[in-house]
Each structure stands twice: as C-alpha cells, then as structure tokens.
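[Q] Does anyone have a clean structure-token version of this?
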Amino acid sequence: MAPFGLLVEGRLDGAVGRQIVEYVGGEVHAVYGNRGFGYIEKKLSAFNRAAAGMPILALVDFMDTGEDCVVAARNKWLPSAHPQMIFRLVVREIESWLMADRAMIAQFLSVSKQKIPRHPEQVLDPKQTLINLARSSRNGTIRRLLVPPAGSTATEGPAYTDEMIRFIRSMWSVEKAARQAESLRRCILAVERLFENLKQD
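[A] Here you go.
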C-alpha cells in the first residue's frame, strides 16, 4: 500500500483523512498539524516541498480561509502544488462531510433522518448544526457528550471529538457521504488519481 502523510487542522479531520486514504487503498504513515488552520497556512509551502518524499493530503475547512471562493482560496494558499501534494478545502467544514452520510449520522445521533440537512455543504455553520441535532437526540448519552452543558461557555460537549471520531471509524461511509458532498467527491478522486500514479511508478 502506498504511504501517505496527512496535514490537518485537528484530530477530527485526521480521522476523516485516514478514512479517505484507506478507502482508495492507501495507508497513512504520518499525521502532521493538529494545531489549527493557522499552522497549516504558515507551513503549507514547506509541506508542499516535503511532498516530493511522501504524498500528502492536506485538509482545511473552507470556512477558516475567510475567502468567498474555493478556487481563489486554494490559489492564494498554494498557488503551485507539487504533484504529490493534494490540498483540498472542505466545504464548508469537516462536519459537512460527516452529515453527508445522512442515514448513519441520524442513527448515531438518534434523530430522524429527516432532520439531517440534504445539502450539508450549503449549511452556514455545520458544527453548530450537528451539535443542535445532538441536542434533540433521543439518547441521553449523546446529549451529554456532544452538547455543551447549560450555562457553559464551551462550544461543544465534553467528549465531542472522541465521539465523532468513533462515528467516523465505526459508521461513517466515505462512499455514501461523497454522493451528498461534492468537495468530498473531488477530494476522493484526487487521492485516487495520485494513488494510481504511485502504483505505476
């Protein structure tokens, strides 16, 4: 299996990136970042050069770029990508891709599938939307772990990241989510093309 590196904002993005790489038949050998989008913005050029030694999939939430256009944001952040650097913007946020597998996220959150947005990439604040869905869950444990306590200044529940990673690893389907999230579909295609090229070398 071809070795890949991941460059991500945080653990949740890392779990998604790993699923994508493994879906196409690759293997993640190293995960970099986990320090927010500012770190990636600052270090992206250096990682682009490092991609000559190992292919890298870099994921950044489009919301975090402050740009109005995905293409403009990508060109601004990385105007010239190495052939082994896949830099993709998640539209609009990693939770958009998670909600794109509507059936499984509904089952995980114990809510009706009808409550899950049909066009998750058009949701203005995907993470808050997901937390609000958890707030209406029939499962008390989901509400306790994903939703911030009443009166708290926290933006998420005490085990939000751990629980969502558990969902990604055990329930989330890359293939099904890609049908509802165009930026995910394009990301998968880019990784597949690179993987095929690596196998031919």
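[Q] Thanks! Anything notable?
[A] The first strand starts at residue 3 and ends at 8.
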